[in-house]
Amino acid sequence: MNEEIFDLEVNDNSIYGIWHQPGERKNIAVVFLHGWAGHRPGPHDMLVKLARYLCDTGYDCFRFDFRGKGYSQVDRRQTNNKSMLEDLEAVLQYVNESLNDPGIVLIGICSGAKLALYYARNGKYPIAHVIAMSSPVLRYNEVESKLATNNAKNTITEYFKKMLYRKTWSKLTSGEIHFSAIGRNIFKPLRGLVTFKRKISVTSSNKKIINGSDRLREKPFGKFHGQMLLIHGEKDPETKPALQQIQDMLRQYNIVSDTCVLKNANHSFYSLAWEQEIIQTISNWLNILF
């Protein structure tokens, strides 16, 4: 296995990533999409471990930082859904140019999972399969107020648990803990609720929320003919409503999916056992398809 850095330019800014190159290729490219608050290693480096494991079995794996995250350029405040979509398309173009027309699998976590689902539905490049981990709800509805509060409580609880770890105190004394980032993670769900209330006032004549262009809604999943794997933690407060929305959408378009809910697991799967279960589940699922 070889690991190579790649650098792409999007709107005069750079995207940095890692290409995990296997010794013997399946001609399948796995593209990883990290979450909003993270970067390409994923929570507790889980995406690194997963990419290396899959690479050892023949998959080319691409992990990258969205602009404004990790090592990629642009002020983080300029990162939004549109910029993340542009970044993904740039990476997919690079993947297609670097390999011989590979099958492409998207693996996303949190907002990266939501983007993967959106891209399979509306994207420019064909996607073979999608693996969505801890996807948030796809649209705001009557459960959003409760979810926002629960997410804030859940985040606070997770931070209190981390205070019991020796590694946390080591980071605290060395100045590695960024309290501003912790504050953003706690209050982000509540800010999302305020944003939703503003968006709901922008409606069409039939009272539907306006999202994206008409062109993107013409042929949903027109270039997707594969399957999806949905992975969630049982204790993630968004699991139940998110799964219901995603599964309803997939049934509407006759898309085959498998669901794995890890018992007692949280949103970011902070346990070696959960991490190993996810890696094995994804590997087995892909090996059946390829």
Give the topology.
Layout: E1 2-10, E2 13-21, E3 28-33, H1 46-56, E4 60-64, H2 81-98, E5 103-109, H3 111-122, E6 129-133, H4 144-162, H5 166-174, H6 179-199, E7 228-233, H7 239-252, E8 257-262, H8 272-289
Parallel strand pairs: 3-4, 3-5, 5-6, 6-7, 7-8
Antiparallel strand pairs: 1-2, 2-4
Helix pairs in contact: 4-6
General description of the model:
The chain has 290 residues and is an alpha/beta fold. Helices cover 42% and strands 18% of the residues. The chain has two domains: 2-138 and 213-289, Alpha/Beta hydrolase fold, catalytic domain (Rossmann fold); 140-208, no CATH class. It is built from eight helices and eight strands; from the N terminus they run E-E-E-H-E-H-E-H-E-H-H-H-E-H-E-H. Strands 1-2-4-3-5-6-7-8 form an eight-stranded mixed beta sheet, with helices on both faces. Helix 4 (144-162) packs antiparallel against helix 6. Mean pLDDT is 84; it is low at 195-217.
Annotated CATH topology of the largest domain: Rossmann fold
Main-sheet strand order equals: 1-2-4-3-5-6-7-8
CATH top level label of the largest domain: Alpha Beta
Count of helical segments? 8
In helices, the fraction of residues equals 40-55%
When the domains are counted, the total is 2
Strand/helix succession: EEEHEHEHEHHHEHEH
CATH superfamily of the largest domain: Alpha/Beta hydrolase fold, catalytic domain
Class computed from helices, strands and strand pairing: alpha/beta
Distance between the termini: 20 Å
Give the beta-strand count.
8
Per CATH, the architecture of the largest domain is 3-Layer(aba) Sandwich
